[in-house]
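[Structure tokenization] protein backbone as discrete codes
[Encoding] learned vocabulary of local backbone shapes
[Protein] chain in single-letter code, fold in tokens
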Amino acid sequence: MNVIIGGIAFAAGVAATYLMFLTVLKSRKERIRKSAEEEGEVIKRKKMLEAKEHFLQLKTEHEQMTSERNTRLNQTENRIRQKESSLSQRLEENQRQRRELDILRENLNNQLEIATHKREDLERIHKQQIDRMEVVANLSAEEAKGQLMESLKSEARSEAMSYINEIVDEAKMTATKEAKRIVLQTIQRVAAETAIENSVTVFHIENDEMKGRIIGREGRNIRALEAATGVEIIVDDTPESIILSAFDPVRREVARLALHQLVIDGRIHPARIEEVVNKLQKQVEEEVVEVGKRTAIDLGIQGLHPELLRIIGKMKYRSSYGQNLLQHSREVANLSAIMASELGLNAKSAKRAGLLHDIGKVPDDEPELPHAILGMKLAERYKEKPDVCNAIGAHHEEMEMNTLIAPIVQVCDAISGSRPGARREVVDAYLKRLKELESLALSYPGVTKTFAIQAGRELRVIVGSEKVSDAEAESLSYDIAKKIQDEMTYPGQVKITVIRETRAISYAK
């Protein structure tokens, strides 16, 4: 019985517990539902506020766009009205000019009619005067014209014979002078080959396929080489050769060596070209100093200033009236020493003056001084003796000779340059003109390099991109052309090409 009662009690407890669990679960579910409804209401209000804000923002942007569009429309309408007004004014002006032209045309027609009447009157009066003259002279107009022509023919024949006789007499008097002039012209023609060698270098290549690599894609390699060296590179149909043309032999030598190294190396592109040219320019400068030292050692001349040795080395790449300047100076030095020894004078001083007598032809700048005076000033600057300085300055009689060495140097200079075909005077004037062209362009601000090419018919001017704009480059080209036209004398025309390039450089470390 107790067991039954316990079972019933246990079942009643389980039932009560289950009912209590259901009640608690229902209460918790109601709270969760209410909480969810409240949270949903909050989210709903939040989203509605965000939607209202977005709508207001869109409305504001739309109003702003509408306002800007209206502003642009108003501006366009104003411009259209202004153009209409301008067109109206132009139309009125054209109509006024047309009326004025009509008036002028009418006046011209009236004046033409008056001129026609006057011409008819003049012709009538002229005919009357001719008739009167025929009556007075008892000759017709044709007969008078014939007599006048016969008289003029006789007088002209007499004057022509007199003129011919004068020409023959003058020819006899100047025959010797004319013969010498013809001989000199013939000598100059023979020396033309030397002049060509002084302005052109031929670079030989193994095959014509290398020409395409040297030119590069769209010509960028050859343009880079010309810009870096200042030498015009001519690639034509000549088999297995390229022509380097420039008035400055140093530039030609640098271009020749650069081409040689690039062809051997095989890497030909603008950056490599610029690197090789810069390297070779330094090598040529070192070679110039070495040539100066070797020349002084060969001639037994000691104690020369290093700058004088550099100037002597540069003579190797310069010509004087068609002669190589270094060979000419060496020859003058040896002749001066021999002549001074024969006369019992100081042979060493004479040899020193003979070697240095033309150093004024190779300065780094080109002052407006005769080369003899400039050479004397350079010698004085580098502590040469007074007798040597005087011999340098007086070898063209531009100053008084104070020592016996001076006439010896002058005579030996004439001996070295007086052989047939040794010199051609136009070369010096040609080089001076090209230097003046480059110096004139270099005087403008922003110009970094100048190169005169094609025998002075083209001047290439390289400017810094940070200093000169594209528009200023065009203006600079015009200004240089105008200045050359006003200040210089030259044959034909000179083309001025201004090159402006931009470079971006970075380093990978």
In short: Residues 181-197 have pLDDT under 50 and may be disordered. The chain is about 70% helix and 5% strand. The CA atoms of residues 437 and 484 lie 8 Å apart.
